[in-house]
Amino acid sequence: MMNSSTKTQQQEVDSAAVIIIGGGLGGLCSAKRFLDEGIDFVILEKSNDIGGTWRDNTYPGCACDTQSHLYSYSFAGNPNWSRRFAGWSEIKQYIDDFVEANALERYTRLNTAMTSATFNNEKSLWSVTTSSGITYEGQYFLLATGPLHVPVIPNLKGANNFDGHQFHTARWDHDYSLENKRVAIIGTGASGVQVIPEVAKKAKKLSVFQRSGAWVLPRNERPYSALTKWIFRNIPFARKLYRSFLYVANEARIFLVFQKTGGRISELLIRQYIKYQVKNKDTRQKLIPTYNLGCKRVLISSQYYKTFNRENVDINLDDIAAIEKNGVVTSQGDFVPVDCIIYATGFDTDPRSYLSQVPIRGSQGKLLLDAWKGGPESYYGITTPGFANFFQLIGANTGLGHNSIIFIIECQVNLITKLIKQAKQRSVSQVEVTSEAAKDFLDTVVNLFDGTVWDTGCRSWYHSKEGLNFSIWPASTTRFWLKTLKVREQDFEWRKRANTGSTSVGATREQSVSRNAALENS
Ligand code: N01
After folding, report:
1. Which of 172, 163, 134, 104 is nearest to 15 (CA)?
2. 445: burial class by Cβ within 10 Å (0-12, 13-18, 19+)?
3. Contacts of 475 by beta carbon, 8 Å cutoff, 6+ apart
4. Within 10 Å of residue 272's Cβ, how many Cβ atoms?
5. CA of 56 to the centre of ligand 1 (A)
6. Residue spans of beta strands (DSSP E) within 224-372
């Protein structure tokens, strides 16, 4: 059974077992798994197209910095990747093809932004209101919005009075020509490092405003030959072996690069690389970061550093004091004339900001924003106490700095699917993580940060406003896989019906265990 729709005089109501929010790689991965398992679902996508970050980021040079054979679903390999790190359009095509191959558009509602989500405890039903006026009801609610979809433009004095053109990298204006223009790029993170070499080739003058330097490794890029693609197409085992090799090589970085000692060795090597790439000593000094390698995202580009050898490119370390009609004024009082400002200033990754206008009310009537007052916390980035039948993908502390995020998404989708299936097998209508299990996870993460480069005091989008690193999973993904492979039954409360015969929320682990045992025997 797919979605049933009933229209009343007041409102249209549509229903599915799982309401998935977001049609990016996470939402689509869960959709495919639910399809295979016979679990009824609907995808609500706020935009007019699927693809998430690969729909939004189309700036010149935009590509994935994880190898494409690994940055793709394990169950939907693509033997035809043109090169090791595919560009955004090829990744978007992969996603479009995946949607078409699995007929997922049938289950997708575009231009449908969630406006609220409320759990009805009596009915064990999530009710999601949307911008389209249709309310969606489902037993389960899956937030697959991802953390990188709300662009941040800093509030710079005078920016509204700028006479030139200005836009964010995630909202690239392809109608605007950069030929012969004086351009300012603010920000040198992952987006900046990719776009700067490309803009430098077009602009008359490029002024880069850097607040923090970037540790950039050479990009081991190469196109795949026709023969390699033929082998991947015709000998699937070879492609899988290659994928496994990439996985292991990336995984090793958690031990070699992201531990404090390993990071120092890598820093020495990159310093030599910068020396080799950048001719001018002053420029070189400006480019060298002042924080430990790996503390912010490690970037890859073989073009970035040497772009600063170009005569039409300069780098400014001074803060921006103001924007005037036709240029940028630095904190040193220097005026830099520009026709265009490009903000490579990243995203607001804190769900408390991007969900601030969307009340999500859980099983105890509590708002998610209140539950996350001290920081967004969740059990393996998947679910939160007080929110029965609520799931998330890439929630707190499950982002990666060293391997493919798709691996984590697949682990999370696996656990969510198992939870849904187990709830059905047990004939319970609600499943909710215990406070203890969520706290255990958080304690584990805090301990895992010890001795890693993430524990060396830099600030980035990995951090909440309280200064906590709420983004990164600071251990191997193999460990994450093992921890999420099976449902740890004692970590959850399984409720037959709201308020009857269930352990109370916040029950001790022992109570939950005995309750679970009772349910199993019933
Ligand atoms: O954003 P960022 P991003 N004045 O937050 C600077 C993914 N991604 O879009 O470091 C001056 O990393 C800021 O400075 P500082 C990937 O996961 C992936 O580049 O805060 N500067 C920083 O330099 C990535 O990590 C891919 O001191 C200001 C920059 O802007 C994530 O998205 C490609 C400023 C922001 O860097 C985010 O990357 C692109 C201000 N007021 C993105 N405010 C691929 O896979 C901010 N900055 C290829």
Report:
1. 134
2. buried
3. 254, 448
4. 10
5. 15
6. 299-300, 313-316, 320-324, 327-330, 335-337, 340-343, 360-361
The secondary structure of 159-215 as a DSSP string is GGG--SEEEEGGG--TTS--TT-EEEEE--SHHHHHHHHHHHHH-SEEEEE-SS---
Pocket of ligand 1 (CB under 6 A): 63-65, 148, 154, 186-192, 194, 209, 211-212, 297, 320, 344-347, 460-461
HSE-CB of 512 using CA atoms within 13 angstroms: 19
Q: Under 8 Å CB-to-CB from 137, ≥6 apart: which residues?
A: 13, 14, 15, 19, 125, 126, 127, 128
The answer to whether the CB of 16 falls within 8 A of the CB of 2 is yes
Bridge partners for 337 per DSSP: 327
Predicted confidence pLDDT, tens digits, the chain (522 residues): 334 445 444 569 898 999 999 999 999 999 999 999 999 999 999 999 999 999 999 999 999 999 999 999 999 999 999 999 999 999 999 999 999 999 999 999 999 999 999 999 999 999 999 999 999 999 999 999 998 999 999 999 999 999 999 999 999 999 999 999 999 999 999 999 999 999 999 999 999 999 999 999 999 999 999 999 999 999 999 999 999 999 999 999 998 888 887 778 889 999 999 999 999 999 999 999 999 999 999 999 999 999 999 999 999 999 999 999 999 999 999 999 999 999 999 999 999 998 989 999 998 899 999 999 999 989 999 999 999 999 999 999 999 999 999 999 999 999 999 999 999 999 999 999 999 999 999 999 999 999 999 988 888 999 998 899 999 999 999 999 999 999 999 999 999 865 544 433 233 323 333 333 333 333
pTM of the model: 0.92
Identity of the residue numbered 182: R
Ligand 1 atom 11: the closest Cα is on which residue? 211
| Residue 205 structure tokens | 């003058």
Closest residue by Cα to atom 31, ligand 1, is 190
Distances (CA, A) of 283 to 37, 240, 279: 56, 43, 8
Nearest-5° Cα angle at 452, 451 to 454: 130
CB 87 within 8 A of CB 63: yes
Q: Residue 191 C-alpha to ligand 1 middle, in angstroms?
A: 6
CB atoms within 10 A of CB 312: 15
Angle 436-33-492 from CA coordinates, rounded to 5°? 15
- Residue whose CA lies nearest to ligand 1 atom number 35: 345
Q: Residue with the nearest Cα to atom 41 of ligand 1?
A: 154
CB within 8 A of 28, min separation 6: which ones? 43, 50, 95, 98, 99, 104
Distance CA 322, CA 142 (A): 42
